[in-house]
Amino acid sequence: MSATSADAPPPKAPPAAARPAAPPGSRRRGVELSLTVAAVLVSVYGYAEVGLATSGAVPRDAAGYGAGLALLAVLAHLAVRARAPYADPLLLPIAVLLNGFGLVLIYRLDLEPALGPRAAPTQLVWSTLGITLFVLVVLALDDHRMLARYSYLGATGALALMAAPIFFPAVNGAKIWIRAAGFSIQPGEFAKVLLAVFFAAYLSANRAALAYTGRQVFGLRRLQLPTGRVLGPVLAIWLLSVGLLVLERDLGTSLLYFGLFVVLLYVATGRTGWVAVGLLLSAAGAVAVGSLEPHVHSRVEDWLHPFASVDAGLGPGQLAQSLFAFGNGAVLGTGLGQGHSALIGFATKSDFILATAGEELGLAGLCALLALYALLVARGMRAGLALRDPFGRLLAVGLATILALQVFVITGGVTDLIPLTGMAMPFLAQGGSSVVTNWIIVALLIRVSDSARRPLPDLPEGAP
Amino acid sequence: MIRCIRRCAALSLVLLLALAANAVRVMVVDAGSYARDPANRRIAIARYEHPRGGILVGGRSVTGSQDTGGQLAYARTYRDGPLYAPVTGFASQTYGTSLLEGTEDGLLSGTSSQLASVPLWNEITRDRQRPGDVHTTIDAAAQKAAYDGLDGRRGAVAAVDPATGRILALVSSPSYDPALLAGTGPAVTAQWQRLNDDPAQPMLDRAIRQTYPPGSAFKVVTAAAALETGAVTDLLAPTDSPDPYRLPGTTWSLTNEGRGCADASVYDAFRVSCNTVFAKLGADVGLTAMARQAEAFGFNDSGLRVPTVVAKSNFDTKMSPDQVALSSIGQFDTTATPLQMAMVAAAVGNGGELMTPYLVDRVTNHGGAVVSHTGPARLHRALGESTAEQLQQLMEAVVADGTGTNAAIPGAVVGGKTGTAQHGVGNKGTPYAWFISYAKPPGASRAAVAVAVVVEDAEAARADISGGGIAAPIARAVMRSVLAAPPRPYN
Question: Per the database entry, which stretches of residues form a coiled coil (chain B) (predicted)?
Answer without folding.
Answer: none
